Amino acid sequence: MTDILTEANTATHTDTDTGTGTGTEQATAAASGAAATERFRSRERADGPAADTGRVNTLVSELLAAAHDIIRRHQLTYAEYDALKAWLIRVGEDGEWPLFLDVWLEHVVEEVAHEDRQGSKGTIEGPYYVPGAPSLPADATLPMRDGEQGTPLTFQGQVTDVAGKPLAGASVEIWQADSDGYYSQFAPGLPEWNLRGGITADEEGRFRIGTVEPAPYRIPTDGSCGRLIEAAGWHAWRPAHLHLKVSAPGHRLITTQLYFRGGEHVGDDIASAVKPELVLDPVPADGGEGRTVTYDFVLDGE
Ligand code: MBD
Ligand code: FE
User: Does the beta carbon of 238 sit less than 6 angstroms from any atom of ligand 1?
Assistant: First the structure.
C-alpha cells in the first residue's frame, strides 16, 4: 500500500539541525513519544472533576456523526480510509498520542475548562510535564548544566488572590526546553531535572527564578505527527515558551505557558496555545548579562 501518511520519513530531528545538540545520541520521535506515553499513564490530575461515563454515548456518537459527515461531504475513498487506518496505528506505535492530542485538541479542552476564571489565564499543559522536580527556595536558579547555552533570563513576580492579597508560600513549578528546543527526560543526553524546578514563593508570594531562554520547539519530523504535518503542508513549530503550574492552598491551580514578544511563531503556534495575556516583554538585565521579566499570577479561590 502506498501510504501518503505513513511512508518512512528520512528527515530526523538531529543535532545538526538545531545547533549544539545534546550529545551523540539523536532525539527520535519514537523515544520521546514512548517517554510521553509512560508519563501520561502514571500521571494524576490534581485539578478538575472526574470523567463522567454517562456522557460516553453522547460524546462518541457525535464524534462519529461528525466523521460520517466528513466522509460523505468529501467522498472519502478506500485508499484514503486505508491511509487513515495505517496512520492511526502508527501514532500508537510511535507513542505520539499524547503529542497529537495535546497539540491539536487540548487548547479547546483548556478553553472550556477554564472559561469561568477571573484570575490569570492558563493554557495547555502539553506532553512534557513531570511532577516531582527539585524543590527550590523563592530566589533560585533552575538546575542546569555547567555553561548551559542560551540567553540568561531572570523570571520574577508575585502570586496573589483576585483581591490582590499576596499568597505566602505559593508554589511555582516551571519546566522548559533548553536553547536547542529539547526537554529533559524526553530527549537523550540531558541531566534528569535540567531546566525543571518547584519554587516556593516567599511570605509575600514573591519569586525570582534564574534560567535561560528556551528555543522554539519543533514537532519531531520523523514520527507520525511529523508525517501528518508534512502531508498537510503545515509548519511544525511552537514558539519558545516557559511552562508553569502555579498553586496555593484554597486556590485553583493554574497551568500556563509564557511566550516572548516578537519570538518566531508567537503568531502561528501549531498548538494554538498562545493568548495575548501570555506574552512576556523581557528587558535587558540591570548591569548583568541577559534579560529580566516580571510577571504576576492571580489565583482564583476554590
Ligand atoms: C511542547 O513543548 C508543548 O508545550 C506542547 C503543548 C506540545 C508539544 C511540545
Ligand atoms: Fe512545551
Answer: yes
- The residue whose C-alpha atom lies closest to atom 9 belonging to ligand 1 is 126
Compute the average pLDDT of residues 120-147. Answer: 98
Instruction: Kindly state if the Cβ of 217 falls inside 6 Å of ligand 1.
Output: yes
Q: Which domains does the chain have, with CATH numbers?
A: 1-302 (2.60.130.10)
Which residue's CA is the nearest one to ligand 1's atom 1? 126
Share of the chain above pLDDT 90, in %: 85
In the prediction, which pLDDT does 8 show? 57
- Please give the average per-residue pLDDT across 156-163, as a whole number: 98
Angstrom distance (rounded) from CA 57 to CA 60 = 6
Mean pLDDT of 20-31: 68
